[in-house]
Amino acid sequence: KAGVTQTPRYLIKTRGQQVTLSCSPISGHRSVSWYQQTPGQGLQFLFEYFSETQRNKGNFPGRFSGRQFSNSRSEMNVSTLELGDSALYLCASSGRGQGGRETQYFGPGTRLLVL
Amino acid sequence: GESVGLHLPTLSVQEGDNSIINCAYSNSASDYFIWYKQESGKGPQFIIDIRSNMDKRQGQRVTVLLNKTVKHLSLQIAATQPGDSAVYFCAEGYDYKLSFGAGTTVTVRA
Fold it and tell me: Is the pLDDT of residue A102 over 90?
């Protein structure tokens, strides 16, 4: 079974631009979570989607948004990029719909650099 | 807010020795705990998990111990190998999200 895939793997943007990242979960998984990883803050939870609905959200500004499609694929969008948004963005999927109470499997991440 | 933390940011281990990585958590409502391993340039890789109604779980060369009384989690790796060199994260699960600790960088000496 294929793992979680994320595209693109690397991205360079400038301040003020917006970016959309994509995540395809493991086949059959309906829950998708997004995390931001930086050297200073570690792994921070952004939001989680299940059956196209956002179930939980972390403490990030409204510039960070996401959505999930009927095939469970998910996208996250960051508008008005800031230098501090440079990070590795990780997507994780899980199967049984119990969210944080079940194993989440991570993709390789998208490395975003904001100049 | 609630957070999960690791006691040591780095750990150096002789190849063949056993490794113990510790983690303290603060959310008493967390009912699920996971250990992940992250190698450079990759996403976190699942190692082992444990539910709050257990205090020990074993996998292949790994054992996770949970002490709810003192809110402590540990990962034991038996016969550490060079391929075990990575950053190890503990995570606690609650309310549809995982909260991660800062990570412990494990370096295996030949």
Answer: no
**A66 phi and psi angles, rounded to 5 deg:** -150, 175
- The pLDDT score that the predictor gives to residue B2 is 36
Q: How far apart are CA A40 and CA B51, in angstroms?
A: 29
Interface of B with A (CB under 8 A): 1, 31-32, 34, 36, 41-46, 49, 89, 91, 93-103
DSSP string, B26-48: --TT--EEEEEEE-TTS--EEEE
Res B4: pLDDT: 55
Shortest distance, CA B106 to any CA of chain A (angstroms): 16
> Of A55, A60, A69, A15, whose CA–CA distance to A35 is shortest?
A60
CA distance A23 to A67: 10
Residue A85 has pLDDT above 80, yes or no: yes
